[in-house]
Design brief:
Number of strands: 36
CATH class of the largest domain: Alpha Beta
Helix content: 10-25%
CATH topology of the largest domain: Phosphorylase Kinase, domain 1
Distance between the termini: 19 Å
Number of helices: 14
Strand content: 25-35%
Number of domains: 5
Strand order of the largest sheet: 3-9-10-8-5-4
CATH superfamily of the largest domain: Phosphorylase Kinase, domain 1
Mean pLDDT: 75
Radius of gyration: 34 Å
């Protein structure tokens, strides 16, 4: 795959991204290097007065990985107002308070590329009375993932762990805006206020209510007089009939903002009516059994709201949200309450391409779409920042911003919404027949957002997800860039020039390195690593470095990089022999796998280019950095720049050999390593065998397992 990195405008380092999976993949590019530098620069502006705590906080800040993570910090106690005691444990070791934090938590704003605060947030203060080692408390309880920071009471000198608002003010138990004990008590207190008249049904409802979890629908007994506008929809069989109805009071749910139980009135529901009361009991028990096996909540099976009974016929009813509230038809996708007929009607008669065949194709795509994204006709004036990327035969490909953005159905808000200012790829066809042929032939396989037309040229356009074409565009951009530069360089040897040019023109998306001619004066900080009769190996800094494509700036970028270069002795007089040997180890023409046993393969497998020493005339093969800075030996794993010298050793040859054997099994870093005993704290015996030959302990490993970050 070709390089297409994004670089930070401030520091020139690579961006990293957070990826979330929802309606579509959303890429959140941000600069970790800048954030870490900002945090580092603030180290001198605060102190807890305790070196161990300062070191702990600084280490946590430097390990910041994702833009949405909490930034742990030292928080002056005077930042807290409205401090209220919630709980004190039996041995008086811990006291819990709620409070308001004036300045609020620190977080990284991706859009502004800076640290900002969210003021006046509610927090929980966990005060460790007579605390001495707060760090152990944090590590043992593993609470860093919902922790804002550490503070200290100025009068008692007790240390305080500042946490997210995780305590219920009513019962002082831990919760996350959802307190199970309080919920259970609410339902238990309500048990006396209702009955279905059937002990088995009452028991089923009560059990479901007491097992409720966050976001569950509350299953309840619903008086029949709550239903109006009852209409028969479907007769399933002789024993079961489905009706639609309006439920006056509506379902019960807990509002976490006001912390009260409220109802959502006047919603449309489906009433599944059973002629025999035993049928409803059998169905509920069957659903409960499925719930046990599949871990799916009973209340979520067809959105079960509750049970009712017709007082005239005495027939029992299951109340569900199974039918569309607008048209009364079954949801196409019950899970997300998606109704295809209603959504197709939403688009009917609101657009036309002006071409009947294309209109029919779009309509067909919309009708066949079983998801909640929609293919649509997109007016051309919705596209801004249009840039030509490449021409391929009769097609031209552009990048653009779609101002309105992708249309999708939000299953939570139950309405159509847009994702504005979306970067897209637009594929322009020179005549309408071409786009029709493509859509008819490959339309089902195309992941497209829609179709458009340039009003000036009348050319039709397929609008695609940007990342689908990014690699192709990078590849084409590279080839054009390289071809246009053929006249701007020469090695001074026609055979070598032709060889490099052929390599560049055969580049494809699987190539990681683009071979090029590199002037020798580009190398600085040259250090000899290894020498024999055949060749000499050096490490060096290549000032202009291998180029890559920056997809944000949409241009070729270079920056200095460490490389290894191998000088082949007397090669100035053996051009043909030299090139033939290089051809044997590179994937060219038919892309055959090269012979990895070759001595040249060892030094050229990560080849970046060719150069020549102006003093000796010897030719040089330039490759990626292959040698460890600490021990000057070749990396155990070149791709990740990992060397065996980066781990601890026991001093016992047999043990060291065993660890090394484990690490080398996959020629890649394995987590097995020698761990100094002083790395373990809070050691506690857990178990031992009858002969006391083996004892098992639990412990905290301070440094933790080793992982290698290749920046």
């Amino acid at each position: 795959m070709l390089y297409h990195y994004e670089l930070c405008n401030k520091c020139g380092e690579d961006y990293v991204n957070d990826t979330y999976y929802g309606i579509r993949i959303i890429e959140r590019w941000w600069c970790r290097s800048c954030l870490i530098n900002n945090l580092k620069n603030n180290f001198t502006k605060w102190t807890s007065g305790n070196k161990e705590i300062d070191d702990f906080i600084q280490k946590q800040q430097l390990n910041f990985k994702y833009s949405h993570n909490l930034i742990i910090e030292w928080i002056p106690y005077n930042q807290f107002i409205y401090v209220k005691k919630l709980e004190k444990n039996v041995d008086n070791a811990v006291t819990i308070y709620s409070a308001l934090w004036n300045n609020g938590s620190l977080h990284y704003d991706i859009s502004q590329e800076e640290l900002t605060r969210k003021p006046n947030i509610k927090v929980v203060l966990k005060c460790l009375n007579n605390s001495r080692n707060i760090i152990d408390e944090i590590l043992i309880k593993n609470i860093t993932y919902y922790m804002y920071g550490i503070s200290q009471h100025p009068d008692t000198k007790d240390y305080i762990i500042v946490l997210q608002d995780i305590y219920c003010e009513k019962c002082t138990r831990v919760y996350n805006k959802w307190c199970k004990p309080c919920y259970r008590n609410y339902f238990i207190n309500e048990f006396k206020n209702w009955t279905s008249g059937n002990e088995i049904i009452d028991d089923i409802i009560k059990k479901v209510q007491l097992k409720i979890i966050p976001n569950d629908i509350v299953v309840e007994w619903i008086p029949f007089n709550q239903f109006i506008n009852i209409k028969e929809i479907e007769k399933v069989d002789d024993n079961t009939t489905i009706y639609s109805a309006i439920w006056n009071n509506g379902p019960l749910y807990y509002n976490t903002n006001i912390k009260e139980w409220i109802r959502n009135p006047n919603i449309k529901v489906a009433l599944k009516c059973f002629n025999d009361s035993q049928d409803i009991i059998d169905e509920l028990l069957s659903k409960a059994e499925k719930y046990k096996k599949s871990c799916t909540r009973l209340s979520r099976l067809h959105e079960l709201y509750g049970i009712s009974q017709n007082p005239d016929t005495e027939k029992y009813i299951i109340v569900q949200d199974k039918y569309c509230g607008k048209c009364g038809e079954k949801y196409t996708n019950e899970c997300i309450k998606w109704c295809r007929p209603c959504h197709i009607n939403y688009f009917e008669n609101v657009w036309t391409s002006g071409n009947e065949i294309i209109d029919d194709i779009i309509l067909k795509m919309q009708l066949e779409n079983s998801y909640y994204k929609i293919v649509e006709w997109i007016p051309f004036n919705q596209f801004i920042n249009i840039k030509e990327m490449v021409k391929v035969n009769d097609k031209t490909i552009y990048s653009a911003l779609w101002s309105n953005g992708l249309l999708y159905y939000n299953k939570y808000k139950k309405k159509w919404m847009r994702d504005p200012n979306l970067k897209v790829t637009i594929k322009c066809f020179n005549n309408s027949q071409n786009i029709i042929d493509v859509l008819l032939d490959k339309g089902k396989n195309y992941k497209i957002y829609g179709i458009s037309q340039n009003p000036n040229t009348k050319e039709y356009i397929i609008v695609l997800e940007n990342r689908l074409y990014e690699n192709v565009l990078c590849q084409t951009y590279h080839k054009n860039y390289l071809k246009n530069n053929f006249t701007k360089w020469t090695s001074g040897n026609e055979k070598i020039d032709i060889f490099i040019q052929k390599l560049q023109l055969t580049v494809d998306k699987n190539d990681r390195n683009i071979c090029e001619w590199i002037p020798y004066n580009q190398f600085v900080n040259i250090k000899e690593i290894e020498k024999n009769d055949l060749l000499t190996i050096h490490s060096a800094i290549w000032n202009d470095s291998p180029f890559y494509y920056n997809s944000i700036k949409e241009e070729i970028i270079r920056k200095p990089k460490k490389v290894t270069y191998t000088t082949l002795n007397k090669s100035q007089n053996m051009i043909d022999d030299f090139l033939n040997k290089v051809k044997d180890i590179l994937m060219i023409n038919n892309r055959e796998v090269y012979d990895r046993s070759s001595i040249f393969c060892k030094y050229c497998s990560l080849m970046c280019g060719i150069s020549q020493n102006p003093d000796t005339g010897n030719y040089i093969i330039v490759s990626q950095d292959e040698y460890c800075e600490k021990c000057s030996k070749q990396y155990t794993n070149i791709h990740n720049k990992w060397c065996l010298c980066q781990t601890n050793w026991s001093g016992n040859k047999e043990i060291d050999d065993l660890i090394q054997e484990i690490q080398l099994k996959k020629n890649y870093y394995n987590k097995a390593e020698w761990i100094p005993y002083n790395q373990f704290i809070n050691i506690k015996e857990i178990a031992k065998d009858n002969n006391n030959a083996t004892i098992i302990y639990s412990a905290i490993w301070k440094n933790g397992p080793l992982s290698y970050i290749n920046n």
